[in-house]
Design brief:
heterodimer, A: 94 residues, alpha+beta, Immunoglobulin-like, 5-stranded mixed β-sheet, 51% strand, B: 361 residues, 11 strands, 23% strand, elongated
Chain lengths: 94, 361
Amino acid sequence: MRRGIILATCLLVTSVFIAPVAVAAELFGIVYSQGTPIANLPITVKENQQVKTKTGPKGDYSINLPPGNYTLIIKGSEIAVTISPAGNRFDIRL
Amino acid sequence: MAENEGKRVDKWQKWESFAKILAGFSAAVSAILIPILINSYTEENRKAEMYVKTMTEREKSDTDIRQTMFQGLLTGYLGAIKEDFTKADEESFRRRIMFLELLTLNFQEYFNAKPLFEEVYAGLERKRTDPKASGNDIEKWENLENEIIRVSRNIVSRQATMLNSIGIGVLININKYEPKLDNSICVRLYSREDFANLKQKDGVTVLESLQDGGCSGQLNDVQMKGTQNGTAITENAVLKVKMKNETGENRHQSMNIVLKNVEKSRITVQLSIYDDIFEGKVFQGRLLNKSFALEISVFDLPYMDNTKLSDGSRFALVLKEVGDDSAVIEAIRFKNDFLSLRDRPVFEEMLQKLQVGDKRK
């Protein structure tokens, strides 16, 4: 019984530490406005408003998040994206 | 002795015969070649003269047609204003917008139609904001406002595309300035070759067209290097002197943009132009050249509304989109000696023809 309790406690403690530590993957690409890369454009993630970035001088952006489905907010528009575990490129055309 | 004399005479006779043959041959060749050369030269001259005459006639015809067209369109536009002065209804505004579009599309290299666009837009704004206007009227005038903005954007877009083909442009989103965020933006007004060759202070990192947080690296006289003969020498003072003594090659410019105000058809920005200093190909710092407030309108035509830089090139700011507290502008840098496509093929074609003629000679 005692061994069982210790084992269960160890498993519980391990799961508490391992579960949330999902590996972040990179979503990157270029944002185009009417066919031209647009710089300095703010991008926010709807599901996590703390995650935000801006496009670079060549319209390029990069966001690191755990794999899954997200919604990017750009100039008031919502754009659905999927981040794969290996990271992926997603060009956005406004 | 008589024998030697005989031999000498023979020798001279042989030379005389040879000379006679050579003279005859040369005369024959000259008689053939000289006319050919003269004929060829005359033919080339004739072709060049004919070409210049044809191009001149063509230019003259083109100018006559355009003059007639311009007079017709301008008379039509001014006539429409006079006729509709008392009416000022939807139809009269539509007619004026149509004339403006025709005028600007056909004469955009020569005619700055911005005041006319603004005049029509101001008239529509007055109609829309009239306290007596009904809901339907407001919608009607707003649609016309959007229509004239669409017409202007179409023309501006064509001009911007043309300037981008001979220069370099960057599309930027700028947000209304917040001091806490320091969200001004610095645009480097360099040529494509400059971006390929010039480097940051570390001598390795390439320069980007944009720099976040404004144009940093401004030189000042605070840094002290030491003293020499009782005079304080500052590192930046040495560079400042160098900057003033040099012209042309080492001079490049950057522009700091701060968005102050946003309206439907215009934005107000504070522009600061900096002279960027390079030691060879390595960035050293920058000096403020001038700072001024500027209104950028949707009716600004980059062919006409542009600013000259200290290195002789020009830049234009095009208002692409307007948001609540932000705007999208395009900054285009292009050469000062730009000629429109309408003119360029004529000159280039003529020069090529003449050069081909020269090479054949």
